[in-house]
Amino acid sequence: MNSRVLAALSLIVAAGIFFAYVTPTWGGSIAATQAAIAADDQALAAAAQYTSQQNQLAASRDAIDSSSLSALSTFLPGSVDNVGLILDLNALAARSGLSVANIDVASGGTSASGQGTTALPTAAANPVGSVDLSLSASGTFAALQAFLSGVERSARLLDVRDLVVKGSDTGVYDYQMTIRLYWLR
User: Fold this and answer.
1) pLDDT-derived band of residue 40, with 50, 70 and 90 as boundaries?
2) Is the pTM of this model over 0.70?
């Protein structure tokens, strides 16, 4: 009889341990830990996919010729570099025979998509920024043609937005133009 009481008591203690400790622990902290592990596994899979895509893009970038990347960087630079552009425009005007009187950064521009009239649109809206330069010059019409031809052949992305010509009887004209330059944000 003693063995039956001991067996029944052992069964009651085992059931008590199961319902009082094992079930809450397994359903509570262990389940939360398993959910956290599953979430971490998903994050690791996403990170592995991101790393794989990043490696593919880096390999594609490395496959591009360095001279082509340099030309692209010149065409659409990563910064505005107003001073360098103004010096280049001044040198181009001097080679063309134009006398530059004034170059200023204009107060307004638009985004490269043509939307809005802000000088610097938000980067989320457009990855290409633009700034307008106002240029005053004087010279002959042939000098203006040579200057505009040089702007057209420029390695940098530029647009002549406005051109105002003030007439003269001497053959030397005054020009007021707005040139838009672009850069990659």
Assistant:
1) very high
2) no
